[in-house]
Design goal:
The chain is mostly beta strands. Helix content is 10%, strand content 52%.
């Protein structure tokens, strides 16, 4: 899975556009929410559709996205289970398609 961060690019005419920049390629486990989990998640955040578990990284933030095999997941929240700094759980919403 590739973690990406949005960057602003300015062209020669000083016009700005947004692009996604690769930050890191990491091992990840994607877990779609079960029916019960999805219902519970809707109570707190109606957009969470999957949890992604990765090894701990201090540079992962909710303004990133994760891309895996053409699937795009917008990171909505980053959880450090037990504050152990071993892994992170990314609460994500699956986007429609990859747009660079």
């Amino acid at each position: 899975m590739t973690l990406q961060q949005k960057t602003v690019i300015e062209d020669d005419l000083k016009q700005q556009s947004e692009a996604w920049t690769d930050i890191a390629t990491v091992w990840a486990a994607i877990e779609p929410l079960s029916g019960r989990e999805y219902f519970a998640a809707r109570q707190e955040n109606a957009e969470v559709t999957a949890n992604i578990t990765i090894r701990y990284r201090k540079d992962v933030t909710p303004d990133m996205r994760a891309v895996s095999e053409g699937r795009v997941f917008d990171v909505l929240s980053v959880i450090n289970p037990g504050e152990r700094y071993e892994s992170l759980i990314l609460m994500c919403r699956e986007a429609v398609s990859v747009d660079s």
